[in-house]
Design brief:
The chain is of the alpha+beta class. Helices cover 20% and strands 25% of the residues. It has 3 helices and 5 strands; from the N terminus they run E-H-E-E-E-H-E-H. The structure holds coenzyme A.
Length: 133
């Protein structure tokens, strides 16, 4: 298996590092928008192969009590190798002292997150699916 490093910093990263990530569906400048989102987070973890970002996990929080895993994405060619799980575990470790470390996900990913120790619950959402410029 290829060597993957995880790093907790955006230092030295530019929009080009994130242009291939499509989950959030930005219609224009996806790399720039994603990088701006990541800079606004309390914590990020990047999965890096040979200097290239192949996955990321992002957490917003209040610095004290609550944390929320807002997004997690692994580039298609790199999925199924444990990278997504590793990113979540790294973030779980970093936020293990919080009252809450929560997330919302689609039904198909319930098993993925249950295997990582999360419990299924009810969430209320207000989303701008497909509407980001
Ligand atoms: C979800 C995602 C991050 C998982 O990353 P990954 O690196 O492929 O995950 P892992 O290799 O660590 O998978 C661990 C396990 O979860 C399972 N799994 C991974 N993705 C899954 C999915 N979309 N649905 C159901 N199970 C999934 C794997 O089969 C694997 O099971 P195994 O241990 O029995 O083999 C990746 O599929 C992705 O980027 N998807 C698109 C974006 C997305 O949906 N993000 C989540 C937002 S909440």
């Amino acid at each position: 298996m290829a060597r993957i490093d995880t790093v907790a910093t955006l230092d030295g990263r530019g929009p080009e590092d994130f242009a291939g990530f499509t989950m959030l569906g930005f219609a224009s400048e996806p790399g720039q928008r994603l990088l701006a989102m990541l800079h606004g987070c309390e914590a990020v973890e990047l999965a890096v192969h040979d200097g290239h970002v192949v996955g990321y996990g992002a957490v917003i929080g209040d610095g004290n009590t609550f944390a929320f895993l807002t997004s997690l994405e692994v580039l298609p060619d790199w999925r199924g190798q444990g990278i997504g799980s590793t990113l979540v575990r790294r973030l779980q470790d970093r936020f293990s002292g919080r009252y809450a470390f929560d997330l919302a996900c689609d039904e198909g990913l319930v098993g993925f997150y249950e295997a990582l120790g999360f419990t299924k619950a009810t969430a209320m959402l207000s989303r701008n699916y497909g509407g980001l410029s």
